[in-house]
Amino acid sequence: MEKLNFSCKLGVLSRPDGSAMFCEGDLKISSFLGETIVIAGLYGPVEVKMQKVLIDKASVECSYRPKSGLPGVEDRLYESLIRNICETSLMAALYPRSAVLITLQEMHNNGQLISCAINAACLACLDSGIDMKFMFGSVTCFLTKQEELCLKPPINEKDIKAFFVFVFDNTKGRILASHTKGSFSKEQYEEALHLSREESKNVFIFFKKSMHTND
Amino acid sequence: MSSVRKTIVSNCEKKFLIKNLSEWTRLDGRAFDEFRKIDIEFGKDWGCCSVSLGKTRVLAQVSCEIQEPKSSRPSEGILNINIELNTIAAPHFESGRQSELSVQLNRLLEKCLKDSKAVDLESLCIKMKEKVWALRVDVNVLNHEGNILDCASVAALAALAHFRRPDVTCDGEEFIIHGYQQRDPIPTVIHHYPLCVTYSIFSGGHYEHREKYHLKIDFSDYIVADPTLLEEGVADAFLSIGLNAYKELCGLHLGGKAELTPDVILNTANKAAMRAGIVAQLIKDSVEEDSVKRQEKLELGFHKTIDNEKVVESIEELSLCLDQWTSKRKKNKKKKKQTKIFEENTIKMEAPRTESNLVAEIESIGKGSAALVPNDNRDNSEVWQASESEDDDDVMIVEQPKQVVDLLDIADSGSEEEAVIVLNSEKKSKKKKKKVKTEY
């Protein structure tokens, strides 16, 4: 199975407490096969607005910006997905009556935008040094029209029959979130899950490596 | 706009900054008419560009769609500019909600790009009264470290210059939009390159500040180019000038309160014109460079920057000057252990800046304090001066008790401010002095 290439840069922005530019995909090959790039920034814990105060934990807010146009329904869906993941992984109970703001900005999209955004969010959390229960990493798996599963997006977008986004934690490899689009059989889902779980190990290895080199 | 999470500028900072300005220095060591470094990067998509001005960073993306033209202008395309202040740029920004700042920035940018007719809208017409291209420029602010407007105007213009729209053909009835693979896309026609150049004005010092802060310095208006976040917060007013490379004015905005004479505005506009010319050329060059890269099928996109700099300094350079101060303090501590402090009127200090050989002179003023007088005539009389009352030493002159020639490296972090001081006893220092003298 082909491996994904990752690269990242931590602390790309000076204002947020933690920021990361995460890049996933084919970095070497010519301009047809591209990569997906997302910038993530995290502020937290910061002052919270009155209507969002939670007395027992920090309120996690997430906003996702597409590169062009106004954010639509789909973008809101990604937002809530990422917010839920961050809520479970951050030690929100340590910061009552405060807020954690996570902002994601699409830089370039080549298919695996959601998983890339989630990984960028995790790196931003790590960069900011906020308390976390575990790391989270995400993998997108594509099902092509030829009923093949692959981790890299096919060159032609029309070849995609379905795609799966899985998010795992790094301690026990549990599933934190699963997002699918398109039609597929149960076996295909399970196979995709298995593939993604294996690949997620590489993601975590990359996270650890990048925290090491960026220090 | 809500004041939640807003960064507050303290009185201390205000006072310090104004006092610095009165001594002709800025916190980051720039001259008053010096701008921060501009960096333009293009993404893989057409019309995608990320510009950083110092640490301020902005992402612009141009998109296009076919629309019906406005009835008042049936043969013209439509250009929309939208600036978005994201939470990522500053915690008090709210994305998706209009604030006073975002409306102002949007309007200024529109004035500069749209009202100056920089983009040829008639070439965007497909069919009169029926179909025209509508271009939309989305400017996303990623990091707010002051002067968003200049950065956004460069980004928007560079993105427009970089953008290509798909070709459209018409066979009588039907319009066919050809994809990027089928036919070569068409670049946007840009008549001229108008850019915003922003200055901060520190005035009101005549009356308000002097009384408030008990400063004994005569204030005149300090006009500072490309203000940082702190300078923006302290400044009394800002002057934004929209100009193109031909010195044609495309917009002028004075926000805040300042007493400016026409002469001052004209002078500033002249300086801004120089700047606009340089930046316009920079945009043209980088667009050209990008198209050459595309032809040669070289690597493109933002990820390049990641690969090039594997090891990242997360806090690149703090304010330049502040850095120097801390490093000097450290240096002092180190030297105090081994050496005695002595006074001498002048000692030549050579700071080999890899490229520009900057030679500086140290003058001691009173006990334990000294002034570093740079000999490069960059900004004439604007020099650092330590007042006599200051106890904390900025630069120290040190002597080895025994005759040992000692090379001390006070380089901090290996950035530009690398300096090697040659410290000698008197005998040897004379020899060294001669050497130094012969060098310039």
From TrEMBL, chain A:
Which GO annotations describe the biological process of this protein?
nuclear mRNA surveillance; poly(A)-dependent snoRNA 3'-end processing; rRNA catabolic process; rRNA processing; U4 snRNA 3'-end processing
Q: What is its main location?
A: nucleus
Domain Exoribonuclease phosphorolytic, first and last residues per copy: 6-130
Gene Ontology molecular function, alphabetical: RNA binding
Keyword Zinc found? no
Entry keyword Nucleus: yes
This protein's GO CC annotations: cytoplasmic exosome (RNase complex); nuclear exosome (RNase complex); nucleolus
Q: Where in the cell is it found?
A: Nucleus
| Swiss-Prot/TrEMBL keywords | Exosome, Nucleus, rRNA processing
Q: Which CDD domains match?
A: RNase_PH_RRP46
Coiled-coil segments: none
Database matches in InterPro entries: ExoRNase_PH_dom1 (IPR001247), ExoRNase_PH_dom2_sf (IPR036345), PNPase/RNase_PH_dom_sf (IPR027408), Ribosomal_Su5_D2-typ_SF (IPR020568), RNase_PH (IPR050080)
State the similarity comment.
Belongs to the RNase PH family.
The entry's protein name is Exoribonuclease phosphorolytic domain-containing protein
User: Species name for this entry?
Assistant: Rhamnusium bicolor
**Source organism phylogeny:** Eukaryota, Metazoa, Ecdysozoa, Arthropoda, Hexapoda
Automatic annotation (TrEMBL), chain B:
A GO molecular function term, named singly, is:
mRNA 3'-UTR AU-rich region binding
**InterPro entries in UniProt:** ExoRNase_PH_dom1, ExoRNase_PH_dom2, ExoRNase_PH_dom2_sf, Exosome_comp_Rrp42_subfam, PNPase/RNase_PH_dom_sf, Ribosomal_Su5_D2-typ_SF, Rrp45
Cellular component per GO? Answer: cytoplasmic exosome (RNase complex); nuclear exosome (RNase complex); nucleolus
Q: List GO BP terms, alphabetically.
A: exonucleolytic trimming to generate mature 3'-end of 5.8S rRNA from tricistronic rRNA transcript (SSU-rRNA, 5.8S rRNA, LSU-rRNA); nuclear mRNA surveillance; nuclear polyadenylation-dependent rRNA catabolic process; rRNA catabolic process; TRAMP-dependent tRNA surveillance pathway; U1 snRNA 3'-end processing; U4 snRNA 3'-end processing; U5 snRNA 3'-end processing
The segments labelled Disordered in the record are 370-392
Top-rank taxon of the source lineage equals Eukaryota
Which positions fall inside the Exoribonuclease phosphorolytic domain?
34-166, 194-267
Where would you find this protein in the cell?
A: Cytoplasm; Nucleus, Nucleolus
Which key words tag this protein in UniProt?
A: Cytoplasm, Exosome, Nucleus, RNA-binding, rRNA processing
Family according to the record: Belongs to the RNase PH family.
Provide the protein name: Exosome complex component RRP45
Q: Which organism is it from?
A: Rhamnusium bicolor
